[in-house]
Amino acid sequence: MATEGSIERTRAEDADVATVGNRTEQIYVAPQWKLMWWKFRKHRMAMVSGVVLIFLYLIAIFCEFVAPYDPESFSTRYTLAPPSRIHFFDTEGNFRGPFIYGMKRERDPVTLRPIFVEDTSDIHPIRLFSPGQPYKLWGIFESNIRLFGIDAPIEEHAFFLLGADRLGRDLFSRIVYGARISLSIGLVGVFLSLILGIVLGGMSGYYGGVVDTIIQRVIEFIRSIPAIPLWMGLSAALPADWPVVWVYFGITVILSLIGWTGLARVVRGRFLALREEDFVLAARLVGSSEMRIILRHMVPSFLSYIIATLTLAVPGVILAETGLSFIGLGLRAPAISWGVLLQEAQNLRSVALAPWVLLPGAAVVISILSFNFLGDGLRDASDPYER
Questions:
Q1: Cα–Cα distance between 219 and 261 in angstroms, integer?
Q2: How far, in whole angstroms, is CA 105 from its chain's centroid?
Q3: Residues pairing with 354 in the sheet
Q4: For the CA atoms of 182, 185, 186, 191, what is the dihedral angle to 10 degrees?
Q5: pLDDT 10s per residue in the chain (387 long)?
Q6: Residue-wise over 133-147: b if at least 16 C-beta within 10 A, else e?
Q7: How far is it, in rounded angstroms, from Cα 36 to Cα 150?
Q8: Strands of 87-89's sheet in order across
Q9: DSSP notation for 302-356
Q10: Phi-psi bin for 95: left (phi > 0), alpha (psi -120 to 50), beta?
């Protein structure tokens, strides 16, 4: 006679079997994108990196609102001022919420170097959605509401979350504004590389023959030229009197013209493998045009792989722009990008006195690592049937 405990165990085992069966059935009937999402969720670092990148791009999109100051606002009283310390309790131990003390500029009695000390009698509360300098969001909507700040202009009392540069400008605000150019140039450059890579790589793999030979020789010629001297030469060819927007698009086009070759070879290899498949032959037999076969049948069959490849290519474009701007051959002031901000790090005196001028490099490292981890996760998820 079965005991009550054995009956409960049997029911639990049946429930586990039913759960496994339902899960297996869901896998068999799930569409491709859902299988990719289930596998992508298992990559913890890719998930975290995706959240970080969403956060960074939201900051770049709403940089006027997030930055507490205009990036060109300055105060000669606060040149190379250190990051402001955020306090919650005053000197008497009373809770006041987040606030900062005013800063006084003094001189070190030993080295005679200017230093900043806190004035504990001057308290400035930090407020969310604080009114500040007026701005135009995306150059359209006028407002003066900032995400956070203090009720004082930068000329009188400044809140430097990450310190100030040698002109007394808020470094955090400039990093936030620089994110818009540095992060967008990667997406725009990769988008142009995507078009060139798919079109030329697809033609090379689909048609073969003379077309394939010509395109492959062009790719080999471009890849045989050292990348950095080529970037430097093409960037130096841009007129020095061009507006900032023109230089931005010029740099983007240059990076795209150089970066499409790797994707083109990947697409060519895929087309060579797919052009003899049954579904391509069936599309030809029903009278589909060659462009429809390429765009509606062949490219979607490895679209997930292209997405993963492009995600891994974005960091290369960001690093290229940062490097060119750092050595003075990319974007130039008054443009604001992470590479332009890192030009300050070329001044050893500034780095020695104010190491926070290197913080734009930390933003570059975080974004590059996030893209790499996200690309690894997408690459693994692009083949959900592989364990």
A1: 6
A2: 37
A3: none
A4: 160
A5: 445 555 555 554 444 444 444 555 565 556 666 777 777 788 788 889 889 999 999 999 998 898 888 888 888 888 888 888 888 888 777 888 888 888 888 887 777 677 888 888 888 888 888 888 888 888 788 888 888 888 877 777 788 888 888 888 888 989 999 898 888 888 888 888 888 888 888 888 878 788 888 888 888 888 888 877 877 777 777 787 788 778 778 878 877 777 788 888 888 888 887 777 777 788 778 877 777 877 777 777 777 777 777 777 788 888 888 887 887 777 777 788 888 888 877 777 777 778 888 888 889 899 989 888 888 787 777 665 555
A6: bebeeeeeeeeeebb
A7: 46
A8: 87-89, 95-107, 114-125
A9: THHHHHHHHHHHHHHHHHHHHHHHHTTSS--TTS--HHHHHGGGG-HHHHHH-GG
A10: beta
Q: Which two tokens stand for residue 227?
A: 């990348």
Helices (H), 237-328: 244-274, 278-285, 290-292, 299-301, 303-326
